[in-house]
Amino acid sequence: MSAWPGAGAFLDLDAVPLTDRGSRLLIFARPDGSLRVAGAVYERHADRCTHLRRLAVEDADGRQLPVTGVGPEGISFSDGAVSLTFVDAETLSLGVADEGPLVRVVLEAFGTDELGQPISEADGAPIRWCSTQGRATFGAPSIVLPAGGSVSVRMGGAVRATPEPGSHGRYVEAASGRWRDWFDKLPAVRDSDREMARYAWWLLASNIVRLATHPDLETVVPSKQGYVAAWQWDSYFISFGLRHGDPKLAADQLRLFFAEQAPDGGLPDVVHDGGTLACVADMPPGDLVALARIHGPDSPMVTQAYMPITKPPLAAWAARAVDQAAGSSLQDSVQAELKGGLDRLHRWWFDRPSPDGLPGYEHVYSSGLDDSPLFDDGGPVFAPDLPSYLVMALDSMAALADDCGDVEEAGAQRSMADATADLLVAERYDAGLGQFVALTPAGRRETLTPFALMPLLTGRLSTQVLESLRESLTAPGALGAAYPLPTVALGEPEFDADKMWRGPVWLNVNWLVVQGLQRSGMDAEAADLAERTVHMVRESGGIHEYWNPLTGARAAGATTGFGWSAALFLDLAVWLASRRK
Fold first, then answer.
1. Would you say 335 and 319 are in contact if contact means Cβ atoms under 8 Å apart?
2. Where are the alpha helices (DSSP H) in 148-190?
């Protein structure tokens, strides 16, 4: 059915459900070959969000018709004899081809309440079934459809067994048109990357929702399976990939967070349907339990209700990248639009408590590294990555000042960037170890992670320091894995190939190091890491949350169809394609 096999080939309806731009509906396969419709809900796994327990299509003899094709525009049964497509965010249409067989559509709701009304496991979206005579039917209704017949199912609405003639064909055509328009924006990549790039581009659109708190903006969430909200870090990374084909949508991912900026300049970690997560008091109970288990029930990261939780400051860099991709003038610049908020954000970070003038992370979630050994001693942690991001941010603001012809502002921003980079080397670089280290409540933490390479982003390191980082990048026992970069060096006792931030490859980490290598004039090393990264993604057969650095396969516990991985795969693929020109 699909006109875009590079996307449809990955929609297995098992790990990767079918969904649509803006929809909260997820269509999964059941073990018996029928379908299940789930909902996308913040902090709830799709297995616990069933709207429609079973949707099956049977022939006149009661035999179930198999699913034979899946694409962005819908699902086909029996080689197109019957098809299913999205009408809108809440409505599905199932129709029989004009020359198709007579079929029976079986629809099973999850159950009924004490009043006999149907309910679903998902929040706020009960299903109501109506027969052609208008009488409500519950349990397991079935509808007989002749050739050319169709039925529509609306979550929270009714089944229409007698829709307008020809409507299903128009719905399929409209869905195909929507996706054709989206794929027309796909950025240019090499032939070897095109199939995975199409899938990545589909993922970005398919992960779009409208949050109840910001219904005017399309928000690209990390995944509709549990990650149904905007995380600050994710949104920045997603914008880097989106900018190549839809810079306006990319800019909106940044505007979302600055619409929630606190008066003191801080930004929330998460924006979700119910509000924001900006401090410990906002955290879901499950997260507090997990943190108490790791860091102890008396940890300030659990007990200090008003400890801020945010994410690393990549906004200025992302905004400038979006403007450059769009060719924006100053009048249209999203960086210029957000300048006041960006300056306040940077001041907020530099005003945080610090032993030596370099800011740190009070809460582990603010670093984005939930279980990294850098936080095994608790918090705060003064790691080398945060000052590096701030140098990038200040350089981006200096470039904006250059655009505006403000020499004094540009000089002030660069002077602060220079001072921060100098202090980073003076305070965090250990010449004996040949690496950057972190400060924790227990003292120095020398565990080697790729975050020790983030000072490459400053573009200001000496030849001696660069050579030591080059060695860490490739040495066996360090970060030189078969599939780089492990998030903990292979020779460290904390290394675990499958445990989130304690060993697996995260695509955003590789991407950040590629950018740092470019900024530090190490173009060959940047290209090699980018090439190995996109190769790993292609060979793994999907766009996952994180990968095993020893096998290159999806790591145990990692979700798939992950937003920032899709966006940054695209960004790397676009860059590699541009190097051939």
1. yes
2. 167-183
